[in-house]
Write a structure and sequence with these properties.
The chain has 430 residues and is mainly alpha-helical. The protein has helices spanning 2-18, 24-42, 55-67, 80-116, 136-161, 180-187, 196-201, 204-230, 259-280, 294-317, 323-330, 337-346, 351-367, 377-381, 390-394, 397-402, 412-428; strands spanning 121-126, 129-135, 163-164, 191-192, 238-239, 245-247, 255-257, 320-321.
Length: 430
């Protein structure tokens, strides 16, 4: 966090000079030298000293080595407690912005996939059992909704991260006339912390962010699991690009998909969330060194999200969709049985009776190795004389999908409207 530490120190030094807490010329020299140190670090000209304990002492030691005792004035009116609280907030603010952009890109790609597959009929499942026909667009848009909520959670977390703690001191603020509002404005924060003990002694914004990260990874993992199933020889719904596959060390015919790696990384992020909750659960006010544990976990979680999101986005964007296989699978397993029962109800048959009639027909079809749409009208009438030729239209897959016009359903008309709504939503994501 050298960048955040130096920028925070520049703002603090500017405030010290403005408030005449240190001479203005000292403030200006400190800021000038800190900016030179930042440039040197980014140019690879600085070697950090592990004996200096942390990044804060490294930067301050380098500063003092360059301008002598003037550099020692920088730490006036602050503690490493509020300094590190500032640095982690500045770091996470930037990371949240980056990860929101990755989530937005994923939402865009998924919405585009949905637009290309409005009429791609596929099985809908409950408990991984054939349930009712839907479309790939309907299925993918479910994940769009999930990732939209993930985006909102990141935005919400940003609000609570974007609060400036510098000026809290070790725990009880300071006797120097600090202008915290000035520092807040210099660093682009929305507000300052209102209690100095709270400012240095909580990391709930870190926990909240790890929770948001965990839900993003959970949604990625669920989708990966489905893609793994869809890509199997038993389903053959999709084919993944070879760029997102690895070979087996023993089976020459086998390709392993990157989705498994993303699925596994999810547990890693969950672990960081649980670790941070555990660290914080027994800490009395105010600052405790236990809180140093916040860095390693959240750094790794950020790296994991930044790796998994773009890989997953490119993986789904390049996968081949086998539309015929999806449709053929939707014809199996009596997915139109509910629609057959609904048709009977619309003819005046009580639902419970309709349910029983279709149950008999399903059993008959199983025993005769047929689907409902393979049965003759005579076979239908043998169970109930209510049936007419109209039953075949009612149980057609496209009819089953497109008559579900209730908002939230898979009908072509509704899905088109939702895709357009998502496009407008994507334009407004900031």
């Amino acid at each position: 966090m050298y960048k955040e530490d130096i920028l925070g120190s520049c703002a603090h030094a500017a405030m010290l000079g403005k408030q005449n807490i240190i001479p203005k010329e000292d403030s200006d020299l400190i800021i000038k030298t800190l900016k030179e140190i930042l440039a040197d670090i980014e140019a690879g000209k600085v070697t950090f000293d592990e004996k200096a304990e942390d990044i804060h002492m490294n930067v301050e030691t380098i500063l003092i080595s360059r301008i002598g005792d003037v550099g020692k004035r920088l730490h006036t009116g602050r503690s490493r407690n509020d300094q590190v609280a500032l640095d982690i907030r500045m770091y996470l603010k930037e990371q949240i912005v980056d990860i929101k952009a990755l989530v937005k890109e994923l939402i865009t790609v998924l919405n585009n996939i949905a637009e290309r597959n409005i009429n791609t009929v596929m099985p809908g499942y409950t408990h991984l059992q054939n349930a009712q026909p839907v479309t790939l667009a309907h299925h993918v848009l479910a994940y769009v909704e999930m990732f939209k909520r993930d985006y909102d959670r990141l935005s919400d977390t940003y609000k609570r991260t974007n609060v400036m703690p510098l000026g809290s001191g070790a725990l009880a603020a300071t006797t120097y006339p600090l202008d915290r509002e000035f520092v807040k404005e210099q660093l682009g924060f929305d507000a300052i912390t209102l209690d100095s003990m709270d400012g240095v002694s909580d990391r709930d914004f870190v926990i909240e962010l790890l929770s948001a990260f965990s839900m993003i990874m959970m949604h990625l993992s669920r989708f990966c699991e489905e893609i793994i199933i869809w890509n199997s020889q038993q389903y053959k719904f999709v084919e993944m690009d070879d760029a997102y596959s690895t070979g087996s060390s023993i089976m020459p015919q086998k390709k392993t998909r990157y989705g498994r790696l993303i699925r596994g990384k999810t547990g890693r992020v969950y672990g960081h969330l649980m670790a941070m909750l555990t660290v914080m659960k027994g800490i009395p006010l105010a600052y405790n060194k236990d809180m140093q544990e916040d860095k390693e976990g959240v750094f790794d979680a950020v790296d994991t999200l930044k790796m998994c999101l773009p890989v997953f986005t490119r993986m789904v964007d390049t996968m081949t969709i086998n539309k015929d296989n999806m449709r053929n699978a939707a014809r199996k397993g009596f997915m139109n049985a509910t629609d057959a029962a609904d048709w009977l109800v619309k003819q005046g048959v009580p639902f419970r009776d309709a349910h029983a009639i279709i149950g008999q027909l399903v059993l008959y079809s199983i025993n005769n190795n047929k689907n409902l749409d393979d049965l003759t009208l005579d076979e239908y009438k043998a169970v109930s004389d209510v049936f007419t030729e109209d039953i075949y239209k009612a149980i057609d897959l496209d009819t089953c999908v497109n008559t579900r016009t209730v908002p939230g359903g898979p009908s072509e008309a509704y899905i088109k409207s939702l895709i357009e709504l998502n496009k407008k939503c994507i334009e407004n994501l900031k």
